[in-house]
Amino acid sequence: MKSRLILVLPLLIFFGISIFLFSGLFSDPTYKNQVQVSRDIPEFALADLMQPQVIYDQSVFSGEVTLLNVWGVWCVTCDVELPFLSQLREQGVRIVGLYLPESVDADFGTKPLAQLQREVTAKLQRLGNPYQFNILDADRQYSIDLGVTGAPETYLVDKKGVIRMHLIGDINPQNWQTQIAPLYQELLAE
Amino acid sequence: MMRWILIALMLVVTNAFAVEEIWQFDNPAQQQLFNQLKEELRCPKCQNQNIADSNAVVAKDLQRKLYQLIKQGKDREQILQYMKERYGDFVHYQPPVTPLTWVLWVLPVLAIVLGAIFVLRRRTTQTTELDVSEAKRLLGEE
To answer: Where in this chain does the record put each CcmH/CycL/Ccl2/NrfF N-terminal domain (chain B) (predicted)?
Structure first.
């Protein structure tokens, strides 16, 4: 009896490992940063992308449910996302952009603001403008506070300025319907 | 003509070297901490790369941030806390012991202990068998 158990044991271990590795094939390897959820949106004082004399702070989030969408003209997935976000704006969703400039390399310097504004205007004319306004995170410091890993990323912020969802990747009709819209509606009712 | 092309090429090469970022520190301890932490901090955008190896924008940004924090005189724990506050435990290659991760520590120890028990038991049974045969041989001789 004991020797039979020893014979079967390697087979059992083999099956155990197989099942473990097989389930790994279907697991989602992407990083999900959830530490920001249910936290107050970090403090900031950043300029408007189009009107640098206008400075915003976290009070822009109070009183309204907002999608804070992190994007840039250099980001390919953002191009895909912009038309759908524009549709959402038409449906009355408040979307604020956090603009990430691509390079702050000291050796090359940053892109002149005027050039950046032209590029943004051209892109939004072509693909639709979902944004109430764009906050320029010139040195990408605020993005680090938000735990941004790249673009596009979206934060769903409630009326009290608390982050309720952190989505890495694009917003599309599928995940809007299944994931985001239910919580969005709930937050509107709060 | 050839010479001019050569000189032009050399200029290009020196330019490329100048792009390499050079971090200046106040003392060797800061330099050491920087080298250590950029290896230990994980790029949140990449599949298993630390921020030293990755060229992702976020990895470059985190490296710059790490440099700034060290220059401000922050110590290892403060820097790790700063990063984890923003990017979660994921950002550090040394996960903390939590109910979810304790298996990582217990499993290797368990494997060593069980392996040791297995080996020791085999060895003792073998030696007793040997002793018996030895005894028989000795008895037979007698």
So the answer is: 7-137
